[in-house]
Task: structure prediction
Amino acid sequence: MTSGRSVKFSYNKSNHHHLGLFSRIRRLREDVTAFHVQQDIVLTSQEITSFHSRRPDGVAFDDKNKHCVFLEFTRQMDSVTSSDEGDWAEIKELEENERYGMHIYFINYLSALYGRPWNCTQANFTVGARGSLKKTQFQDRLCLLGVTNSKARDKIRVLTVSKTLALTDIILKLFHVSILHSPERALMMIIAFITFNSSLVPLIEGLCNSNPWEFEFSGF
Result:
C-alpha cells in the first residue's frame, strides 16, 4: 500500500503524538491555555483536553516546505435540493472547516512563535452516500496533495464513488434483512462490511501511492 513511499499510518485514537508537532502534553496544555487567553477565551481543564485530543481523520506532511494539511474524509447524505446556506456538500464543508479552524490557527501561531513556522491548512473530501461529489474541488485537492497525474486523479474519483455506491447498496440490503429477519445479525454484518470495505480506501491508497508527502491516518 505504501509503494516504497515515506508513509506512516496511525489507527490508535489514544496516540496523542500523531500530529508529530508536539511531544509533551503538559507543555502543550500550557500553550493551548495561553493561546486561548490571547483570544479572550478561558477554557476549563476538560475543554483543554478536548482541544488537544481532537484529531482529524488524517494529516499530510511536507517536511521540505513545512506544510501540513488536515484531512477529513466524509460520507454525507446528498440531496438534490439546497438551502440558503448552500447545498449539502457546501454545508458539510463549512462544518468541517469550523471544527478544526482554531486548531489550524493554533499550529500556525505556535510554530511561528517557536521559530519553526509551518503552514497548516485543511482539505476535506466529501462524497455523497448516493455517489455525488464536487468533481473539480475533489480533484483540485488531490492535486494539492501531490496527485498531479490527471488520469490518476480521475481513477481515484471513479473508484471512490464506486465504493461508496457499493457500501450504500449493502447497507440497504442489510437494513432489509434486519426488518424481515434478525436485527442483531444485520448489525454484525454491517459493522464487518464497513470495517473491511471502506469506500475511502481508493482515495487513501491513491494519495499514498502518488506522491512523496508523509501521511498519518486515525481510525475512522
